[in-house]
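Figure S4 source data
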Amino acid sequence: MQIDATVSARINMMRIVLITGIIFVHVPYDPATSPYAGTFGGLDWLRVFLADSLFRIGVPCLSAISGYLLFHRGFEAFDYRRTLRTKASTILLPFLLWNTAFLALVYLAQWRGIGFGYLPDVVNATPRELMNLGLAVETWPINIPLYFLRDLLLCLVLSPLIALAVMRYPRTVLALMLAFAVLPVPSGIFLKKSILFGFSLGAALALHRVDIRRLDRFALPVVSAVLAMAVLLAALLYAHGPEFPVWLDMLRGMAAIAGIFGAWAFSALLIRTRAGQALSRLGGLSFWIFCGHYPLLILFWMVWNRLAIPDYPLFYAASPVLALAVLVSTHAAARRFAPALHAILTGRRMGERKRAAAGRHQHPEMKPAGSIAQRR
């Protein structure tokens, strides 16, 4: 099953939309400015809605995209060794470079007495703690959002087993993985259980040749239902947070997974607009934003506190915009002045011009959709 140009454009567009949303998940705050403190009224509810409800769909949705793209040509065309070799350069190497570079910067800052309290203590960390901060073997990497790449690599290592399971027993396997993702059970080797479910769902849709555009005619009601669910969830979270009862945490997990369908339905509406078409052509920018936004937000938070500005709502509004501005400009500069480095840091994800050039040598339905690969 080939991916036509429209589906490819929708996938690229949704990456940039979801990853931009993930920025709001990681905007820093302290206990005094927590959205659950209720200090800022309606703004606090909005923060809960964006960070703890609506944009939590990003991780499972990006996982589903990865699973779908890996198997969209069928299991017969799947080459496990080639996949591992390719993903070593497109996912593993960028993960190591972005995360270890941030770890080194944090070490240098803390060695000079800067940054303690904002990030884990790197200077006094044990070798095991440093290994985890750098490689995320057991716990979160120091660049927290990159846990998605770590768990995605695990899915890729397990991909033949996942594919065989969802091919033979799709309903049973997905039901078990959904239960694993939502129920309060140990996560095992994964840091975020919903990544395994999302990846498996995407693989199942591809391997069973499900037409993922069948949902398009119901796009508006599906988007409306998911949005209403996110609003209701935010109200419950705001009322019970910051420590959630087990049933509410399970409900949050279910809502994030249900958001996969809402995000895809939304892409059917957005791709028809000029803005959607423009977003679909941004190439490796989404990956650059994904890998670089967290260190920038932490830097902004440190500077903000150093300046002792009390107006947190201003920080909340300005920091995502400023982070996007810095990341868009640095991405463009790296692509122009250091193309080799840009290629490595983005996992060789092609920009618009290169994709268009590649498309001239392929069948229209064979244009590459690229790949990405999605906080706590």
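Figure S5 source data
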Amino acid sequence: MTFREMKDSSRNLRFLEIFLRLSVLPLTIASAFTVVETKDSTDLYGKVVFTNVSGFKFLFSVNCISAPYALISATLLMSLREDKTSSTWGFFLLDQLLAYLMVTSSSSAAELLYLAHEGDREVSWSEVCSYFGNFCSKGKASLVLHFLALLCFICLSLISAFRVFRNFEPPPVSAKGEGRQGNDAH
């Protein structure tokens, strides 16, 4: 690969990374607004809002962290002229952290939505979506938007990992049998 091809490839990767970071922004904001609107009430069972459900509060909190991070990191990436070791490690660690937070928040919200739809007969929990349909539909919409942002963060984690680890040489391949410590000695 020539120097020009490597430079073009790096530029395309940077463009993709900026695009993904900017894509996270509207997805997480829309997910946060949708989860805030997740409320419903009935005369028989009362009122339910997103703050009553810990999984939705966690989802909202992670969205509120992810959106500013995506904007700040995209801005920083656009202003940096070249990859510096400290910035690539910083992006790598923060992208990993945000991806893990998004996985845990989406899985906790998905579990609660599953219970709301299906219930759990073993512990005598009945489903509630037939009573609080608006709550469940808004919760699903928020979860779908959050999941799309999670897919962007998974791609960003892979890109930032590539940026960090391309600076290292692969480990040398040793001949068969070398490197074993006394397995055949006894």
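Strands lie at 39-42, 46-49. Residues 175 and 181 are 14 Å apart (CA to CA).
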